[in-house]
Amino acid sequence: MDDISSVIILGAIVAAAAMVWLVRRYTRRKAVEAALLGVYTNLLDLYGYYFWLVSAVNKEDPEIHEKVKMLKRIILGYLPKINHLSFTREIRDLLEEADTPKHSAAAAKYRALEAILKRIEAYIGKHHLAVPPKILQSNIQLESRINVQEDEDSNIYNAPGFINWVPRKNKK
User: Which of 40, 106, 112, 169 has the smallest number of CB atoms closer than 10 Å to its CB?
Assistant: First the structure.
């Protein structure tokens, strides 16, 4: 009887240890995925701001430069969580470069960001890249339902541009 009890207890301990290991592995993987998503979305925003720095007339707009600095700080905060990935060092080097007001430097960073985004997209894989179009489609369906309701309720709300206004005919 003692042998069976010890086997059961040993089996329970092994099962508990395996469960703890699996849960820790799962939470680490989810933390890396969340950090990678944060890096990816903020790099997309940064890519958009560099587009404005490269193509816009207002290259010296301090608001754009402040947003670029803020996005760089946010992305650099995520990087220690994904330090083991192959492109992390490349992202860090690109973000830590000093910003110069020259057009050619901004254009070079714009192209480098595009290359990094493509590498991240290749790493993320097809499964995760299929999710944003599904979210977009559900948002479009939700918006179409809201627009139908707006048309039905157009006599209640009186905000400019919100209702379909038709001028009254003059009565004589």
Answer: 169
